[in-house]
Fold:
Amino acid sequence: MKRWVKMIRFIGGLCLVTLLGIAYISYLCHNSLCLAPERFSLSTRYSASASSSSSSRSEVPSSPTSTTKLVVGHASTVNIESVAFKEAYEMGFDITDRDVIVFLHIQKTGGTTFGRHLVRDLNLENPCNCPRKRKRCDCFRPNTINEQWLFSRYSTGWKCGLHADWTELTDCVEGALDEYEGLAKKRRYFFITVLRDPIHRYLSEFRHVQRGATWKSARHWCGGQEFTSLPHCYKGSNWTGVELDEFMNCSYNLAHNRQTRMLADLTLAGCYTGYNTTADQLERDRILLQSAKQNLASMAYFGLTEQQAVSQYIFERTFHLDFENNFDQANATLSAQAIAELTPAQIERVRQLNSLDEELLEFARQLLQERFQLLKRRDPHFRQNWLRMVHPLKSERIDGNSLV
Structure:
């Protein structure tokens, strides 16, 4: 009898330990950090050996596509429906259905201001609810209580990690929204971002780090794992007071070519493995730059910090949504003053460290103009719409052919 009692107690103990283990794992796997890879499926969008930038623009899909990845040694994809620019313009954004805008916020590109425009300035029947003394807003679909149409810092928060990049967002966004809304379903994702002149952006990040910023809580999620052992350029809690030369001399400083890295599919280049080594660096750079160009071209929208009016016009015509307040073109005097304080050698060094971003921005400028001219030709009220945006900007001319 005693033996049976011991056996029952033993089995009961095993069951209790198992239940506690399941509960513990469930607790750790919040925010879709432990999603099984089986939820992803294959669909080819691009290869690492893609051709020139002009050909990549011509290959932009005009219909929703699945996002494809090569995960460090084996094939895997994220089966999410992402909407390209032409599809977004032709079909529009349906806030009442299953469409979601996903904002990829790159540091020091003006994304904070743009993000606030999204939650506070869009002219909607049911605007985002932004309570006072709270950083985030509730951007729920009409007649719902928890379905978000905007995935961004100021709506859902950093659900996929602090300043999540393209690799992180495409892996995480569907699961994060499923968990947030308590329901698994398929959505249409409209990826958007903002880019900035690489030299101005780099120097702005340098000043920010010099004041104590670190972003060390970023996840660096790639290929199904979090890279927590990336080396820091500084000792201690931050890099306060760093000088520019020291900032530039750190070979694994993620500020270098940040825009290219954050827009590229990092799994195509082995994620962060060997990130700060020189082995095959040229090939890695080529893969990342081509991937960044293709991902940018496949986005429903992107804007340029230096071209606020054009960026606003493209957003409004693409999504068929208007902003109540115009985008402000920031005065470039401070940036120009900061650059004027640098030596020619320092300026050249900054250019070298951000050569991929320089090429990416040139590609973006051309693509932005193509989109602007396309939308202008199709807009029967272009003069009226354009005047509304440039009226405060005396330096802009109304004739679209002479713009930027």
In short: The chain has one domain: 85-390. The mean pLDDT is 84. The beta strands are 65-71, 74-82, 99-104, 150-151, 188-195, 221-222, 225-226, 301-304.
